[in-house]
Amino acid sequence: MKRASRPLAIYALAAYLFLHLPLLILAAFSFNESRFTVWQGFSFRWYTAAWHDSQLIEAAINSLIVAVCATAISTVIGTLCAYGLWKRRSPVLSGSLYLSLVTPEIVTGVSLLAFYQWIFRFLNVQLGMHTVILAHVSFSIAYVVIVVMARLRTVDGALEEAALDLGANEWEAFRYVTLPAVLPAVAAAALLAFTVSFDDYVITSMVAGVDSETLPMVVYAIARRGVNPVVNAISALLVLGFGVLILISERLRTT
Amino acid sequence: MKRLRAWFLAPSWTVMLSLFLFPMLIILAYSLLTRGTYGGISLPWSVESYQRFADPIYLGILWRSFWIAGASTVISLLLGFPLALFISRAGKWKNLYLSLVILPFWTSFLVRTYAWMFLLRDTGLVNSTLQKMGIIHDPLPLLYNDGAVILGLVYGYLPFMVLPLFGTLEKLDRNLLEAAADLGARPWATLLRVVLPLSAPGIRAGVILVFIPCLGAYLTPDLLGGGKSVMIGNLIQNQFTTARDWPFGSAISLALMAIVMPLLIAFVRRDEEGLL
After folding, report:
1. Nearest by CB: A146 against B9, B86, B275
2. Which one, of A116, A38, A149, A254, lies nearest residue B124 by Cα?
């Protein structure tokens, strides 16, 4: 088979520049001394400004709490779900997981808002961190199931049968045979769920209360008013942070 | 085993039923109710919200959404196919090249959209560079139009096109290409009459995977369209916030789901590997 031809390689280079250059330029200009798009020297001033912005820090802490809680819950539930589906298929459950993945975020957001408002008629609660966390759990489970399921497919089911023959009960067969085999994928899934949760704006903005503003919500509010160097700095940090998490996740998933 | 499996699936069933399927039923009920005096919903039951689709304003937004999502999908296919072809022929570098496509996809959708605001605005890098080079005098209106929205969507969802295309191109039987060459087909003829038809499953999957999120896009038209390029997603958001017409917002949401569901079913039917 002949190798990729030269024009194709040049095209690919252009495509990769298209994919990566906008983020790299944005990151570079976050170190710009000037607030305008003219390079006036290297500076950390926008990072300092972001650090001293109490609204941003508070929102970042909120995002962290939401993402950690949602990740913990959805990783456990999603892993158990993948295992159950691996044992025997359930078209209805798989179908709804698929559907949750492709449902436009705005539809998920408004349906959750409508659901919360309806249920609040009977309960004395309001929108807040808990409603955001539950919303995030509902949309991140599908990601966890897919990643863990991909790994389960490579596991030999006969190993569990051997464990059962040797006197393990079903729980022990799961706990000591299959789970260790898929643990790297579970960790990869958790990292993925964390980035998806930390980054979400659309669904969060619909179900957040006054005390549960997340970082993407604040960034969005500033960005809508126009370009702001502080947002450039936060963007660069997010790209770096997510990039590292995803690289680790990919490594875990493929080892 | 049966009992343990039931316990394992119970939490996900609970979450999916209560936080996904049931909320969908709620908006189905809301879409058939009437708008309350102070927003919210009230009786009587009516199909009025669905009748409002006939209004030319809303038909226009629907048409615009289809147009923008369709254009984004076609452009993604045209840009993604050669890239997937390149990766599938990259030998040992395949995985690296593929990761380079996926990586930006996972780095904050919000930031990636914002990056284009930064580049395209009147005083952005593109305009200021062109002005400095003396090519233009006044800044070009690059941001806040349909073109910017399409660019943002293509940028956002290109990986969804490249991944399934790569999947089919990689599995392509190389002998067929050699056979075509032996029989005298030029490279272009081989591409158009052998490679392209054989990658139809990947094209179909990629088109569905890109078209669905583009059609329901909210963030991209809001930030890059700047209120001028309203799509279905923005209309829904508006009904639930500013306009406070929840029944109508619910009806639009369900209409959108009615378009998404058949596409999803078409995708799952053909998806031999089965993600789940």
Report:
1. B275
2. A38
A83 to chain B: nearest residue by CA?
Answer: B8
Residue B83's pLDDT band (cuts 50, 70, 90): very high
Q: Which of A190-194, A211-215, B192-196 has the lowest mean pLDDT?
A: B192-196
Q: Which of B3, B19, B223 to mutate to test the interface with A (most CBs of A within 10 A)?
A: B19
Task: Write the ipTM.
Answer: 0.87
Enclosing H/E stretch for B35? strand B34-35
Positive or negative torsion for Cα A107, A108, A111, A114? negative
Give the helix/strand (H/E) hosting B42: strand B41-42
B23 vs B40: CA distance, rounded Å: 16
**CATH code, domain carrying B133:** 1.10.3720.10
Distance CA A203, CA A189 (A): 20
Contacts of A170 (CB under 8 A, 6+ apart): A164, B1, B4
Domains and CATH numbers, chain A: 54-254 (1.10.3720.10)
d(CA A154, CA A124): 47
Q: Could you give the C-alpha distances from A74 to A81, A134, A144, in angstroms and in order?
A: 10, 9, 7
- For the cut 90, the answer to whether the pLDDT of residue B15 exceeds it is yes
